[in-house]
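ZP: hey, is the FNR complex queued? I don't see it on the tracker
AM: it wasn't, my bad. submitting now with these inputs:
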Amino acid sequence: MTETLFDPLTIRSTEIPNRIMVSPMCQYSSVDGLADDWHNVHLGSRAVGGAGIVMAEATAVTPDGRISPQDLGIWSDEHADALAPITQFIRSQGSMPAIQLAHAGRKAGTYRPWEEHSGPVPLDTGGWVPVAPSDVPYPYEGDDRGVRKLSIDDIEQIIADFRAAAVRAKHAGFEIAEVHAAHGYLLHEFLSPISNTRDDDYGGTFENRARIVLEITEAVREVWDDDKPVFVRISATDWIDDRPSWDLQQSIKLAPLLQAAGADLIDVSSGGIHPDQAITNTGPGYQVSFAEAIRNETDVPVGAVGGITDATHADAVIRNERADLAIVGREHLRDPYFALHAASELGVDVEWPPQYRRAKPR
Ligand code: FNR
């Protein structure tokens, strides 16, 4: 039977009401990593808007894992307490609250996009020395912070930090946990030979470069409820061809290993590891073919993200079995009610919140 955008998706015994997910998007609006009214209204309105899954932005498992000093965090119980009312509201709207657990690695500590300055925040104005798999900093112009190469003990601590963050996320009421291993942040930095030049158990061979993301996925799965989904976001390719890098073939090899480690769905993005990336496709659905390739080659469920902006396209991605979830980012910033509008456009009768029912197109 053909699956469509508005068919529910059951993963483990969690029923997601439709195949639309709000992509995690940093809001750069926290003080000390704490969620506040902005996050509540932002995430809450996308749940009102009918998305099956509302995923909170990259949420740092440690303070030095924040992309910007204004990122959301979940490194203490206070952080989880601030998120709890948000998950409760999202659930009250029939949507699934999800959280992306993240560590920015060598790309941590940069200005948020709308500041006067860009690039890394200097050490004397609140910045910090980022950690990385190797002694190789991201090539930010004028960055004199350096990087600190992680020791084996540090790696064990980061695995424990992800595990503790997942426990807190569970207590905060999230139904789905996503491990962020994309976009040139810490776990992607381990996967890619561009940023990982280690010669110990965490570098060199494919198996060694993949070790930390598999261990973190296992750790999150261990503490996440058995009936609830764990996702992993990856960059399917570095878009760098002229030297050893991460590519689609390695992603296809990684997907079943992530599944064996406890992941239920691979959220397939791309890029972010190095400014030399040569992204050749930026049009509608520009990463869908990567999701499709992983799904076809491995049978592991996937989410497709990138340039999905209209209902018919999102529906076609599902109907044509290219992905199991249509993940929509920027279009959800333009239109918090994307899913309700998509249903109308596709002629599917979905419940509108009773408060808004008189506005439902007939
Ligand atoms: C993003 N993106 C992103 N990705 C991610 O994995 N974690 C994050 O926290 C963020 N933050 C973020 C903030 C903002 C403002 C934007 C626009 C994007 C990437 C995002 O989730 C998505 O993958 C891309 O935007 C591509 O999808 P769309 O926007 O074309 O649907």
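AM: back. The chain has one domain: 9-359.
ZP: great, adding it to the tracker
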